[in-house]
Amino acid sequence: MRAAEPPLSGAQILLGLWPGWVLGVAAQLQQAALWPLAAYAACCAVALGLAAAGLIGRSRGRAALVLAALAAALLAFGTTGWRAAHFAGQALAPALQGVDLRVSGQVVALPRHTADGQRFVLAVETAEREGAPVTVPRQLQLGWFLRPGDTQAPVIRAGERWALTVRLRQPHGPFNPHGFDRERWLWENGIGATGYVRLGPRSPPPQRLAAAGWGLHAARQAVRERIQAQVAQPRLAGVLAGLVVGDQSAIEADDWDLFRTTGVAHLMSISGLHVTMFAWLATRLIGLLWRRLARPWPGLLLALPLPVAAGAGGVLLAAAYALFSGWGVPSQRTVLMLALVVGLRLLGRQWPWLPLWGLAMVAVLLLDPWALLQPGFWLSFVAVGILFAADPAGRQPRSDAAPAAGWPRAVRAAWGAWREQVVMTLSLAPLTLLLFGQVSLVGLLANLLAIPWVTLLVTPLAMLGVLVPPLWLLAAGAVQGLHAWLGWLAGFELAAVYRPIPPLPLALLAVAGGVLLVLRLPPVVRSAGVLLLWPALLWQPARPAAGEFDVMAVDVGQGSALLVRTAGHSLLYDAGPRYGPSSDAGRRVVVPLLRALGEAPDLVLVSHQDSDHAGGADAVQAAWPTARWLSSYDAEPARRCVAGQRWAWDGVHFEILHPQAAHYGADGRGVLPSNAMSCVLRIDNGRRSAWLSGDLDAERETRLVLQRPDLRADLLVAPHHGSATSSSPVLLNTLRPSVVLVQTGYRNRFNHPAAPVLQRYRERGLYWVTSPQCGAARWRSDTPAAVYCERAQQRRYWHHDGADQGASAAGPVAVDEGGAPDGALAGGP
Q1: Is this model's pTM higher than 0.85 or not?
Q2: N or C: which end of the chain has fewer CB within 10 A?
Q3: What's the CATH class of domain 550-826?
């Protein structure tokens, strides 16, 4: 007779619970649309029933693991969906978009100062439209922008209460392959609408209703302002603010590029290492204080033993530090793991590292399910898991070993630090490649100095500066020295390697290969990790076949950037807009996208010098300085686009049709208005063709096609974003396109595309898509009737469909086309 399996321990049950919970959350986050609340409630009810059955049948051993995993998955799926449906019910009503509203509320979180004003989050208390109460989302992200003639906007502080006149819109952001998902970020942070403060003679002026008070965020802002007052250099003050109060927006964009290139970006925000060090110091200090207090009052040790006071106090102070510094995912993970370890130790128990690691992951996802989509979540948990898995014995406390002293201890500590850094660098490289498309080759060398320098010198000085402000000057000097070291390393030609982001299956295999390389296994087994890494390292995205080409209209908002690819070459037409004095689409969208796709443009063609087309040009040129360059505003003749220029790539022909050489003056500047100087590019493979013309106006369009009445184009990129001053009937009748891509911003102030232009498209039976509805749009010469929309292919329930963009939404919404390939969309006439 077979013996019954023994009951499983709590740690063993957790081995089934945490994978189920993670998979349940992951499954819910893949939903393109939310279910009714009742469906999520049913999932929770079934999960609770399975949990009860699991407790009853716990003596059946491994069956309990299956029940625990299934119950956890259903409960995670149901609770996450319930929270999502509840938040979605608070969305801004379409009728309240773009109208004046009077709102009052409290500023929460740290306001962000920019060159053109301030951005902040307002927790709404009241909202009115023309004196009548209205319902708006509970939290709004607002911008207070400088008006012409203003030198400085009023300083807004966290914790203050304000009454403001605002205009709102639903959350919407650029949508590109591998790009930053702004809509998810807003959703995760509970922000239901974005907008700006209305300032003008017909709008009631902003009114400060109450001062900041003594809240957490007010204290964080006060510390940030003290740092900025003490440290004159904004670059250094920004790094210190990031380390002390977790204000990563204070760190300049150039510094983030430097930190990513050298692989030390993880040190410039509050990481698990910082929180652990703080907890260790707090535990030691509380222990010393408790011993001193116990001398005059011995009863303290009886009421609260020293291990309990020191352990619990250290965890509580570490949690307070993590909250003060922004409560990021690495901080959450560290605090939760510390609390679990200390709690089990005080109870006289010791679990293996895997259940503790899994339980901390579940706790983080309970607080924020959408953290599962953050790169920081995976970097934080995978890093800790790898360190434990690579050396589990070395990470368990040992009571039977005498502590080493002197040089042997120092050597052993240095060797341990070196080994950990090698393990982390090798094992996390595939994950970094998956998340960011780059790997720092100098990261190991950079971190050898940066980790102890930041952890043991910069961060302690920065934290102690809260009590002794002059210490911030010493911390700033240490940061300056670190900048010099990292700048020298970043100067190497191969400081960082950029690779196209591989598909998820290949990426997961590569991550498994990186982990396998560092585990304590026989060399033959570990070498198999190279075989798992190799496919991801060699992977390249599919390119057009010889003689074919494709065009991607990058979603850059109200601006233009197009990627044209042939079998072996790529061309970038326009570089996107400038968003503000210190931000542009080149740095934020175009360069990261091209690197993630594995593209290095052979030619960059900037149609004209308007900022919505050339705003990102400097960032593009810095990323690919050897690319050939053409534009209509360059002083160097060889870098000007001139009608008659022709070249062929892989069986595809390119021709510049405008401007003429006579349109350039002696100084190289155009003699025509900027829009009229737009470089017109025609692409043709003998079967299909495309027409790109920047912001060319209707008069020049007409002249051009009358001179070349034989021209045709299957694809038309809408001239001037669909403005009424372009897309003339003569152009449309001559080219006879079948598909039009319209690059516009969501609810843009120009009302592009204009209603008369869309009517012309309808009359001719053209299919069109707009950036707000489609995201990045890709057209291929081998499937000319379809447009591949990134929003359709990667849609999740928090994404906005962009269909309510005011006057520009007068045309068709992209719909599924029955005969199109998977993920292909086309607009309707």
Answers
A1: yes
A2: N
A3: alpha beta
